[in-house]
Design a protein that fits this description.
With about 750 residues, this protein is of the alpha+beta class. The chain contains 32 helices and 13 strands. The strands form 4 sheets. It has a 5-stranded antiparallel sheet with strand order 9-10-6-12-13, with helices on one face. A 4-stranded antiparallel sheet has the order 5-11-7-8, with no helix packed on it. Helix 2 runs antiparallel to helix 31.
Length: about 750
């Protein structure tokens, strides 16, 4: 056996590590890139800006200005983001500018110029004649121009759509024609539906529009003979139709042979925006790594409770791919990091009930302290774990007094981080940030403003069963938890206490919050930390299902698993805010009583005053559920990718809204605002298609992630955790299916 084979064999026995590596690679392929540079959440944006301020800003301007916001958001996520900001900074500094195009060795910058078009232009930025502001320079021998035309597919080859007018210092005027098919061309020339009808040829294509790889930029040069001292440079529309756009200009100085860029009214993207884009690129990796670690720890917890290795592997993968964990692994909310800390506390608790060592209760407390510092509401878990230390010893004592005496070392170790670190931090923050502001105005005031007002039954129903945020709708596989938890309690008795009480505390607490649904997000965000805990309680049932030979049970569970994975695909493939924004801006005002006649009337008094809009109908009525909306929008996305020439199909798909199928006539004015897939690789290609190095690096990184994920998946399925229950045939089918999924995903990139 070769050294490499021995290494592979040894690695296949490291199931915990393989779970972490597989899910890290898997999540990294699909993670978002923050909507062209901005975050998915206010807390994520605050954390990034704070991490950036602390890590790379010597003046710490943002920290000094907004540090009082720590009364609302914890320090955990900003601290976790600091290493990623530091890693990203060198790449952000050296990354190409996305609004630059290299032509014949010169870097041209795409700028904003007023367009020129026929009389009575509808566009306020469109004129019949524009003057270009020129820099002071000597005689010019050439004018380089990047441009495109619009609404001009029907204009015949060689016909002018505009002209360039050059006036020299003596007042002499020279006009240069700008002809379609020669100096410029229709921007959508390469789109299949346009190519079939366009009446002219393509110009010299030198780049693609930022964010739209089907839109062309065209290059041409006007030679000025003899060289001219230009006093005025103008562009004028010619003809009755078509629109002409100047995108970049550069003048060649005759004597120095130096190209001087001419700026328009502003750059499309500033250097700061470009740097921010790359600085923020690795930020989702915090959620990726936190979620993958959570799954790996779940595997260890399952083993500590005495279940088989294959049960632990099954639960870890189900949690990782078939629950809300997958979509939230790409978002910048604090919940994935809180989930990790809480599961670390459960891992410490599981070790404590097996070994009885007080060092594990100390680790539990440290983990819970991390959760609290990331999101203050996690404080609700602390008394539960404190009590659970005593309850866990019920097997080894005859009375509660004896249990307490057996637990005193563990309780002291548990109290140390909170007694030492937390109390010191509270005093320090009170001194630095103003005690009254922090605790009276923000903490107590925040509770009175946003908590305890909603009837508990209304919040409970919304969190568990509502059409817009119901826990079981967004995690269908969690139906297994209901019978599994009963079995778990019967098997493990008092040791199951925190597994029951922590999810219950989260459920009851958030059912009283005005914004119980967690704002604009995918599913019930506030319940994300409860998902891994509940998955542990499904262990007895999952183990029995894996062992069963009954085909009907296997088929039913497999179908439930497929549905649950499909729901997560709906959530992670699109930015959740796109649909919710279209609904709030374009739909809700068309509905009678803001749509509450279809559902949500009891909640509208709170939903109507939320800044993101009145989402009562989205939350409580099936007609406007984000689940149906994402299926509707994804259909249009796939049509646009695979059949770009069939605009009729695309428009028909967008016109057929989910609620129209139920007879509700409220059509959004521009549903196209909600289209588009949300993956880092696609965003990079769309924004940096003009930069070959970025394109090659993106594709290479994606392929390496996929090869790594497939390799690790094969090792997991043939490793000691699953090797004796997963046949070689099943492993082969799983690898082939996963490969097909990856290849389909790669194909979407070429459809851009």
């Amino acid at each position: 056996m070769t050294r490499f084979m021995r290494f592979v064999l040894a690695l296949s026995r490291r199931t915990t590590l393989l779970i972490f590596v597989f899910l890290t690679l898997f999540y990294s392929m699909w993670m978002g890139v923050n909507r062209a540079g901005y975050g998915y959440s206010p807390d994520g944006t605050f954390a990034f800006e704070m991490a950036k301020s602390l890590a790379i800003d010597p003046d710490h301007e943002y920290f000094n200005k907004f540090n009082k916001n720590f009364s609302r958001w914890g320090i955990g996520l900003p601290i976790a983001l600091i290493p990623f900001v530091l890693i990203a900074e060198p790449f952000a500094d050296s990354a190409p500018q996305r609004d630059s195009i290299f032509v014949d060795g010169h870097e041209y910058t795409v700028s904003t110029f007023p367009s020129v078009g026929p009389g009575q232009a509808a566009n306020a930025n469109q004129l019949q004649l524009i003057d270009v502001e020129l820099p002071e320079m000597a005689a010019v021998s050439r004018v380089d121009m990047i441009s495109h035309s619009g609404l001009s597919a029907h204009i015949p080859q060689g016909l002018s759509v505009a002209r360039m007018i050059v006036t020299d210092d003596a007042g002499d005027i020279t006009r240069y024609p700008i002809r379609v098919g020669i100096e410029t061309a229709e921007w959508a020339f390469d789109r299949a539906d346009v190519r079939a009808t366009v009446k002219h040829q393509s110009g010299r294509v030198v780049g693609k529009h930022i964010g739209n790889t089907r839109a062309n930029f065209y290059f041409t040069s006007f030679v000025l003979e003899p060289p001219v001292d230009i006093s005025k440079l103008q562009f004028q529309h010619v003809g009755d139709d078509g629109i002409f756009f100047v995108d970049s200009l550069a003048l060649l100085e005759f004597q120095s042979q130096k190209l001087v860029d001419v700026g328009g009214t502003g750059r499309v993207w500033s250097e700061r925006q470009n740097k921010e884009f790359f600085l923020r690129m690795p930020s989702p990796l915090v959620s990726v790594i936190a979620t993958a670690l959570t799954a790996a720890l779940l595997y260890r917890i399952i083993l500590l409770f005495g279940y088989e290795r294959y049960t632990g592997l099954g639960i870890a993968l189900i949690y990782g791919i078939a629950t809300m964990a997958w979509p939230f692994a790409k978002f910048d909310f604090a919940e994935p990091l809180v989930s990790l800390f809480i599961v670390m506390a459960f891992w410490g608790f599981s070790n404590y009930i097996n070994a009885g060592s007080s060092r594990y209760t100390f680790l539990m407390a440290l983990a819970l302290l991390g959760a609290v510092l990331t999101k203050y509401v996690a404080l609700v878990t602390v008394p539960i774990f404190f009590a659970s230390i005593v309850l866990a010893n019920k097997y080894h004592c005859n009375s509660w007094k004896q249990c307490a005496s057996k637990s005193w070392r563990g309780l002291i170790a548990f109290f140390l981080p909170f007694g030492g670190i937390t109390l010191s931090a509270i005093v320090l923050l009170a001194i630095i940030l103003d005690f009254r502001f922090l605790y009276q105005d923000e903490l107590l005031g925040g509770l009175s403003r946003g908590w305890l007002g909603v009837p508990m039954w209304l919040g409970l129903w919304g969190l568990l069963f509502s059409w817009g945020k119901g826990f079981f709708l967004y995690n269908p596989i969690m139906i297994l938890v209901v019978p599994g938890s009963i079995w778990f309690v019967l098997r493990h008795g008092w040791r199951s206490t925190p597994f029951l009480l922590v999810p219950l505390a989260y459920l009851v607490l958030y059912s009283k919050k005005e914004v119980w649904y967690g704002g604009n997000t995918w599913g019930p965000r506030y319940l994300v930390p409860t998902v891994p805990i509940l998955m542990v309680m499904a262990a007895p049932l999952v183990e029995k299902i894996i062992q069963t030979r009954t085909n009907a049970i296997r088929f039913g569970v497999a179908a439930l698993l497929v549905v649950s994975v499909f729901v997560q695909v709906l959530g992670m493939s699109k930015d959740f805010d796109l649909y919710l924004g279209v609904y709030a801006d374009q739909v809700v005002n068309q509905l009678p009583n803001a749509g509450v006649e279809y559902g949500g009337a009891e909640y509208q008094q709170w939903s109507s005053k939320q800044p993101e809009g009145d989402l009562a109908a989205v939350l409580y009525s099936y007609q406007f559920s984000p689940l149906l909306a994402h299926m509707w929008l994804l259909r249009a996305d796939l049509i646009e990718l695979f059949a770009p020439d069939r605009l009729d199909w695309y428009e028909a798909a967008l016109w057929k809204t989910p609620w129209s199928r139920f007879g509700i006539l409220a059509h959004p004015s521009d549903p196209g605002h909600a289209t588009g897939l949300d993956f880092w690789s696609m965003t990079l290609l769309a924004n940096y298609f003009n930069h070959q190095i970025v394109v090659v690096a993106t594709i290479a990184t994606l392929v390496m992630m996929q090869i790594g994920a497939l390799t690790v998946l094969g090792m997991l399925l043939r490793g000691e955790a699953a090797g004796h229950i997963v046949s070689r045939r099943t492993t082969f089918v799983a690898i082939i299916f996963t490969t097909a999924v990856f290849m389909s995903f790669d194909t979407l990139h070429f459809m851009l």
